[in-house]
Amino acid sequence: MADIALKATSVTKYFHDPVTMQVLKNIDLVVPKGEFVSIVGKSGCGKSTLLYVLSTMDTDYEGELEINGDKVTGQSLNKLAAVRNGSIGFVFQFHYLLPDFTCLKNVMIPALKLGKYAYKEVEERAYEKLKMFGIEEQALKKANKLSGGQQQRVAIARALINDPAIIMGDEPTGNLDSKNTGIVFDLFQKLSKEYGQTIITVTHDEDFARRSDRIVEMADGVITNHGK
After folding, report:
1. How many domains does the chain have?
2. Is 165 inside any structural domain?
3. Which of 5, 21, 76, 218 could bridge 45 with an S-S bond, Cβ 3.0-4.6 Å?
């Protein structure tokens, strides 16, 4: 289990409003450490629902979930919040930066919340992450002064600040043009290949998915192809 970042066993989920509907059906998924996985499928197939279960943000499911060998199913909300903040970095379709904060402060926020490092060390770590993506010169600019592609790079830097076991992306290039989509993909690939970062993304972008390490295909709430 030492080389497994995430393991989902028999994950099943229902929606109950307005009628009961099964949206995930006995999902089994294993993601080794350092793998870059893209989950694909038509809208409504359950891929985003699965991602939110895997991220521990949705706890209303049947089955079992392990992250870094630790069972997270059934843990308290406080424990799960700690898991998310320390072990999972999120990159969404929209960057969700605080517009009136500097880029540096946006990146620092999860680490300040975690409370593991002194303020000065958090600041240094944030600069380091921004430098990884070539945007350290934007550090003291307010987030709303950056382009969409730059904002998404800041969001990825923020996702990395606590050195998470897994980065999860929900359509991380959905709001970007082809040039910036390529830049973001290259960043993810660099994180996976050079830094051994585990990445799980949900995407509609076929080119993005094709260039990742493995494509997991979903349809009607089940995984139809686990990829290579």
Report:
1. 1
2. yes
3. 218
